Amino acid sequence: RKEVEQDPGPFNVPEGATVAFNCTYSNSASQSFFWYRQDCRKEPKLLMSVYSSGNEDGRFTAQLNRASQYISLLIRDSKLSDSATYLCVVNMPTSGTYKYIFGTGTRLKVLA
Amino acid sequence: EPEVTQTPSHQVTQMGQEVILRCVPISNHLYFYWYRQILGQKVEFLVSFYNNEISEKSEIFDDQFSVERPDGSNFTLKIRSTKLEDSAMYFCASSMASGRVGEQFFGPGTRLTVL
User: Fold this and answer.
1) Considering only alpha carbons, which residue of chain A is nearest residue B107?
2) Nearest CA in chain A to B48
3) Do B43 and A44 touch (CB under 8 A)?
4) Would you place residue A19 in the very low, low, confident or very high pLDDT band (cuts 50, 70, 90)?
5) What is the predicted pLDDT for the residue at B99?
6) From CA B87, how far away is CA B43, in angstroms rounded?
């Protein structure tokens, strides 16, 4: 099983749609979880951290399900500018420290 | 808003040459990282650095790679003898903390092309 797994997409959705991405992780002792956004040939930009209780930032909602070892990202009222690749990042324990493991990313295309 | 900066934005080199990629992390951050991303592939962890030493490195980070924080502000990645397969985007990142609360902030990257 991959350490962090995402559906690569692409997800093609019309403007205004709601879209959800999932990400599964292999190590149950993982401590922290993040969603990043990456535009083509640009650096990853932090979208939001994911907390156990779930958290919301405007149109974006992140959830963590420790029992099933997945995190999710929900985008409501999609905008054209939301078109990007969404990266799931998991902070996993390894040899007494932590390592940030990236998923392959899920591509989102919001269509006019 | 403070940001991570990287230089150069693009480096072209011949196979076998040494390259040094430079990063200036956010000033009050304590943890520093290098990642690489081969075109079309995922972001891969290379190394993390804390308190002037490597805290974790991946299997990619072999003897050809080294990192240094020479002057308290710069953080460098050196590749001693570049190979064609080292061509990639190299991202530097920094964070205030690690583990539970370590949100990382990335620089714009250096595109390394090895000919």
Assistant:
1) A43
2) A99
3) yes
4) very high
5) 58
6) 13
